[in-house]
Amino acid sequence: MADVEYLQSIIKLHADFPKKGISFLDIFPILRDPVAFETLITHFVHHITSQTIPKSVHKKVDVVVGLDARGFLLGPIIALRLGASFVPVRKRGKLPGECISATYVKEYGVDTFEMHADAILPGQSVIIVDDLIATGGSAKAAGELVKKLGGVTVEYLFIIEIMFLKGYQSLDAPAYSIIQHLD
Fold first, then answer.
1. I want to staple 161 with a disulfide (CB 3.0 to 4.6 A). Which of 5, 9, 170, 177 is the partner?
2. pLDDT at 108
3. 167: closest CA among 88, 110, 106, 101?
4. pLDDT at 97 over 80
């Protein structure tokens, strides 16, 4: 697919970041290029409208959940294009008001995510979006938050999937990634 190859060519690899032994795949060059950013968003929206929604029970997406912090860059735009609401999932202590929480292990530590306790209504169809899936810990925690509020995760979306870590296996719904990174 031409758009996938195009996006893959723009992503930068930074070895030993944020710590030794971790290879960081940087999506920010995509965001600096308006054509690349539009290609990315359009690719996601096309996938959702042509693949995800037709297979879903309610035939719509009510909520797009974006993970702290890169999911915040993608989620609101995708939500607007779908006519859905956007809900942020933040690290502990960053949201005001009543929140629910889920703790998770990530590839280089432990963390806790929170979501507003009234952000999702029971039965709402939800898509969860982030830049990358590695071990799946953060995405799984976001899915747990959606489930606690009675929402139904219909799909997880990622720009990049680190294939050998098989993070998608820990998720409670199908996952879609534009780029599958093998290393």
1. 177
2. 65
3. 106
4. yes
Beginning with the edge strand found earlier in the chain, give each strand of the sheet holding 125-133 in spatial order: 99-106, 109-116, 85-91, 63-67, 125-133, 152-162, 175-181
- CA nearest neighbour of 39 among 84, 71, 72, 8: 8
Condensed to tens digits (0 to 9), the pLDDT of residues 8-45 reads 999 999 999 988 888 889 999 999 999 999 999 999 99
CA distance 137 to 51: 25
What are 175's two structure tokens?
């996952």
Taking the C-alpha atoms of residue 2 and residue 8, their distance in angstroms, rounded to an integer, is 10
Distance CA 107, CA 119 (A): 28
Catalytic residues: 70, 107
| Token pair for 8 | 């893959």
Q: Which amino acid is at 183?
A: D
Q: What burial class does residue 29 get, using C-beta atoms within 10 Å of its C-beta: 0-12 exposed, 13-18 middle, 19+ buried? A: middle
